[in-house]
Structures are given as structure tokens and as C-alpha cells.
Design brief:
By secondary structure, the chain is α/β, with parallel strands linked by helices. The protein has twelve helices and twelve strands. Strand 6, helix 9 and strand 7 form a beta-alpha-beta unit.
């Protein structure tokens, strides 16, 4: 059974207010009395009732973060950086995983709100006016990352549109005239929030518009290897395959090697994310690099600043860079 401050007050012959001042190191109490109260509290194994204190203070020093999953290395790495920064600033973090379910995401957001978290970092699969209105009515500070939603919700990520645009310019500069762009999430357009894939696709269109000699095809099917195989058979001359994720690029590289198609002599290949496993891939994969740890830390810092009433930018983009690799 938990020991209460009332019991400590009775044992020490003082008021609960005096116990509160001693336990919270507040002034207005004699040193001898403070020492006696602290000694009794320690002997009894007293632990403060955190939720009750939170209700009095108006904050819980807790944050929530909503992710799709943590099987994706990008998300797990981002969470570690977010949690480390939050902990450094005195906050405890609740992690929930939506598994790309709109219903589960809403359920978890409501659970976090029920637990009186001070703020939420949200990678949303939901979108729309009804969803945004519900978030605003909660009056809880929310910062988004990855998939953006409209409204007054600060956004922390990288400039996906510019990153893919830079990648396409890089390929065109190397002399490629045929491009296959692989982005499986695009098949879910109209069904859920896919802001990141849509921004990357917009970057593709923008860059191809600047490079009219570069013809391109978009692959979004689950059977993307079979589709790429057919496009390769129909191609004339050297082609480049640009993927919206390193995971797709690694699967394609495996297939190319199995088909004895030489990279980069016959096909150029480029990914996106610069995940750690690329350190062990041969040939070294060209990709787009960005600092996931910086995203996580900045996300936590921006959310905490928002909670504390400080001004934060509407959007915070971290830098990205082309990693040339040996696959182009």
C-alpha cells in the first residue's frame, strides 16, 4: 500500500503543507523539521503520486509519439533520438504504433490525450478537416513529421520534393536518358495520408520538366520487380532506376545480380534514406542522405518549445545530400 503525505504528516506531527514543502524543497520550513520529514519519508519508502501532482501543476512532463512501426530502421532511429532529447529536457515518452491503421491511430491519440500528455509528435496516416478539427479541439500541442497535415501544426522533416528533384538532376547530369522511378506507396493515393511519397513524386515531375530529354516511367505495383523486368526488356540504351527507399533499391540490386545485369555498366541504381546496411553493399549504392537523428532531436525540441509557449517555425527542414556511390 502506498504511503501518503497525510500519513507522514501525522507521524511527524506537522501539517500536510509542511510535508509538501519538505518533499518539494520549498522555503518556509525549519531545517530540522525538513530533515525529520525526509528521514521518515525515506524509511517508509514514500513515492509521490505523480498523476495527482500533475493535476495540481497542470502538466505531466510526458510526451506521446505516434509512429507507423519500428521495423523500419528510419523510424526506430528517429524514436531513439526523440526520446533522448525529451529525456534530456525532463520528459518521459509514450510510444504508440499505428501500423498504418486509421482507426488504431485515432484510438492511440485519444489514449495519449486521456493520459494528459503535454504534447504529441505525430506521423499521421489520417488527414482531412474532421481529423484536424478533432486535434485542435484537444488543445494539446501537436507537431507533425513525415506526413504533413494542414492547420497550425508545426512540421519537422526534410524537403522531400527538393531531395528527389536533386537526385533526378544528378542522374540527368551523368547522362542518363531513361529513368524508372519506384515508389510503392503511391498506389495508396486517395486512401490515406501519403504526403511524403506525393512530395517525392512532385519532385520527380519538377526535375523531369527541367530535363526534357529524360524519359521516365513510374512503378508503384507490389509486383515491382516483374514490372521493372518488362521495362528493362523494352528499353533502348542505358537506364537508371531511382527508388523512393533504399529497401526497394536493395531488392532490385539483388534481382539485377541474379539476372547477371551489371550495375552500373548496364543499369544505374539509386536509393533514398542512406540506411546503415548500405555500408555492406557492393557496389556501394548511390542514395539520398539526411540526418535522422537530427530530425528526432529537433522534433522533440520543437514540441517542448511549443508546450512551453515559445514561438516555433511552421516548418523545419533538415539538410539532405546526394551520396554518389558506385551504382551509377
Amino acid at each position: 500500500m502506498n504511503v501518503t503525505s497525510k500519513q507522514i504528516a501525522e507521524l511527524c506531527g506537522v501539517t500536510r503543507g509542511t510535508v509538501d514543502r519538505a518533499l518539494n524543497n520549498r522555503p518556509g520550513i525549519r531545517p530540522a523539521t525538513r530533515a525529520k520529514i525526509l528521514k521518515v519519508a525515506e524509511e517508509l519508502g514514500y513515492r509521490p503520486h505523480f498523476l495527482a501532482q500533475s493535476l495540481v501543476k497542470g502538466h505531466t512532463k510526458t510526451l506521446g509519439i505516434v509512429l507507423f512501426d519500428i521495423q523500419n530502421q528510419i523510424f526506430s532511429q528517429l524514436f531513439h533520438a526523440f526520446e533522448a532529447e525529451a529525456r534530456k529536457q525532463g520528459y518521459f515518452v509514450y510510444l504508440v504504433l499505428s501500423n498504418r491503421s486509421k482507426e488504431l491511430e485515432l484510438e492511440y491519440i485519444n489514449s495519449l490525450l486521456d493520459r494528459k500528455v503535454d504534447g504529441i509528435a505525430l506521423l499521421s496516416i489520417n488527414e482531412g478537416k474532421k481529423f484536424e478539427s478533432a486535434l485542435l479541439k484537444s488543445r494539446t500541442p501537436i507537431v507533425t513529421f513525415g506526413n504533413r497535415i494542414s492547420g497550425p501544426f508545426p512540421y519537422v522533416w526534410l524537403n522531400d520534393k527538393q531531395a528527389i528533384s536533386d537526385a533526378v538532376d544528378h542522374l540527368a547530369g551523368l547522362g542518363y536518358r531513361q529513368l524508372i522511378y519506384v515508389s510503392l506507396p503511391l498506389r495508396r493515393r486517395g486512401e490515406e495520408n501519403i504526403y511524403v511519397p506525393e512530395q517525392r513524386y512532385a519532385g520527380l515531375l519538377e526535375a523531369c520538366g527541367r530535363n526534357p530529354d529524360l524519359g521516365f516511367k513510374v512503378v508503384m505495383s507490389r509486383e515491382y520487380i516483374a514490372e521493372i523486368s518488362a521495362l528493362y526488356e523494352q528499353s533502348r540504351g542505358k537506364i537508371a532506376i531511382l527508388c523512393s527507399s533504399d529497401i526497394y533499391a536493395l531488392e532490385i540490386l539483388k534481382w539485377l545480380k541474379a539476372q547477371k545485369i551489371r550495375v552500373p555498366d548496364q543499369v544505374g541504381l539509386m536509393g533514398f534514406d542512406n540506411i546503415d546496411i548500405l555500408n555492406y553493399v557492393n557496389p556501394a549504392l548511390a542514395t539520398v542522405d539526411y540526418n535522422v537523428n537530427e530530425i528526432g532531436a529537433r522534433l522533440a525540441d520543437t514540441l517542448i518549445a511549443r508546450i512551453q509557449g515559445r514561438d516555433v517555425p511552421d516548418e523545419s527542414f533538415i539538410r539532405h545530400a546526394i551520396v554518389p556511390g558506385e551504382s551509377l
